[in-house]
Amino acid sequence: MREIKFRAWDYRNKKMETVHKLEWEEKLWINDKGGGWGSPHIEIMQYTGLKDKNGKEIYAKDCLGGVFECLYIDWCDKQGGWELFTGGNECMACMGEIHWWEVVENKDLEVIGNIYENPELIK
Question: Structure pTM?
Answer without folding.
Answer: 0.82
